[in-house]
Amino acid sequence: MLEAEIKLAIDADAARALEARLKALGASPLAPVEQHDIYFAHPARDFATTDEALRLRQDAGGLRVTYKGPKLDPPRKTREEIEFPVGTDLETARTLLERLGFIPVASVEKSRREFVLEGPPRAVISIDELPDLGTFCEIEAEAESVAEGRDALDGLAIRLGLADRPPIAESYLELLLRARR
Questions:
Q1: Which residues pair with 136 in a beta bridge?
Q2: What residue spans of the chain are helical by DSSP H?
Q3: Which of 7, 8, 39, 63 is catalytic?
Q4: For the whole model, what pTM was predicted?
Q5: Phi then psi dihedrals of residue 15, to 5 deg
Q6: Tell me: the pLDDT tens digits for 110-131?
Q7: Does 172 participate in catalysis according to the annotation?
Q8: Strands (E), 11-68
Q9: Checking phi first, is residue 134 left (phi over 0); if not, alpha (psi -120 to 50) or beta?
Q10: Does domain 2-180 have CATH number 3.40.190.10?
């Protein structure tokens, strides 16, 4: 299974309009969450070159480790994703990864409001606010193939009234590192 995702820049007015549209479409809101992500560099290969990512994510749901494979359909972010919960605290998990040679690259903090839109395709739409970057919408759906993911994302963008916005291929980590340069 692939995770198909697009990220779109929006402003506060567009975020309010999107929430109203989601409500009109019958989307179910989830509880807002604060997420703290720590991204790591691999000790033997350059994730920036291979377009991979390894992160620890802490939020109200607990701590998870996530691996993201290379993007298969830029500027969409369709890629393999492996994620699992970790039954420890953030500092212990971080220490373990560091002992194995992984190097923390950056932390990304965001406030996220999520909505589930039943399908087909079933999708999760997020409105993310990042202090250093701004406000974004992420549209995410699972897909069996790159083509299925592309079609699902394009259709969802149209349904949400966001088809005129160009997708952003970079991850929040990439955007943050670029902003810091």
A1: 9, 128
A2: 12-24, 47-50, 90-99, 146-159, 172-180
A3: 39
A4: 0.91
A5: -65, -45
A6: 999 999 999 788 999 999 999 9
A7: no
A8: 28-29, 33-41, 53-59, 62-68
A9: left
A10: no
